[in-house]
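Annotated sample (chain length 420).
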Amino acid sequence: MRAAFVLILLLSFLCHPEGISQPVELSNPSFEDEPHIGKIQSLYNARTTIKDWADCGSWSESPPDIHPSGGFPDTLEQNGWEVAQPSRHGKTFLGMVVRDNDSYEAISQPLQSPLKKGTCYAFSIHLSASDQYLSQSRTTGQMSQFTKAAVFRLWGGTGPCETIELLAESGPVDHSEWRNYTFKIEPRRDYSWVRIEAFYQTPSFMPYNGHILVDHASAFLPIDCELPANQLAQKEDSPEPAAPRPSKPGPQSSGQPDKTQQEPAVTLSKTEQQPPASSETVKKNPPKERIIKELEEGKIAKGQVIRLDKLYFPADSEVIEPESFELLEELFVFLSENPKVRVEIGGHTNTIPDPEWADYLSLERAKSVASYLIEKGISTNRLETKGYGKNKPIIANDRLSRYAQQKNQRVEIMILSLGD
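Output written by the structure step:
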């Protein structure tokens, strides 16, 4: 793997002969420690910790677990999770859970040198999931399997556990072999701390019990900002063979390609995502049930506000998720068939971000929707965009509820004129 990142650095140096910044190293990037189950001794006592990492969980959430390579199935304390796979690097690795009480685990550490605004970085980390992960449900108090897929998130901050900017986010980790996830990171400001966390697969409107396994993080390697994200995904030099693992009952062969041979995962920029289906296809094959029910003929009125419920963005991003294209096509068809209608596209965030960031993000998301419609042929003078930030929450205090946060972070259209 190191050879792959040397290649990335070489490409960056060739693009910028004057040289590049030094890599930003992490302390204990492979999460080496004595295996233990993360515990809260009491609300007032110290929590179990991980070497060189600070626990960022809420008072109701335990610190992440440190797993031994291969597990020790004879004792609950050594392997109470029933996780049998080996580490990817070193002797131990990290297990992080999300729970059905809307809590999730996270850790952070100060950087040896800051991530700099205006510098781009390549960062990789190994992720997997276990077929079994036994832990305690916070809602029932019973031991249960935490086997639903979770995602990995990386945040930048200026102090312990801060979440100022989401720097990277994986898709749902649902594979039992270790895979190398590589991200292109472009900080919008300087960050002296990073935080890693497990989080729920979105969109998900109810919390659930799930986990990810984390091991062998790289340094943050400065790269040329023009380098496409898909060129960062390099095959590893000498991947470690997976140890034999218990298999679930099922067919002996599915006839599908071996998933262990897939390329390492990599994030994609907005321009690299697959284009939406054409509007002609949507017109000829309309959805069986209208997504935006308020757009049915005769139901709209001047001043009416309509929430776009199935419009999705990654956290802290204005990039529209591909599963939103059907809704946007429906909106495009409506505006095409009603050429005198003018609308305002308004973005809203939840109440957690800083006001400046909330204003920026909400406006950029509104602009993303407008750009989609304009590229399809809707005139710009029929569209207005506004970013309301966190100034118009539906639920005033959403910090304790992910459901409330999802209600507040939204994009709406308001009918400005019917043209009559």
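Annotation: The first helix runs from residue 2 to 15.
Annotation: The chain has two domains: 2-270, 273-417.
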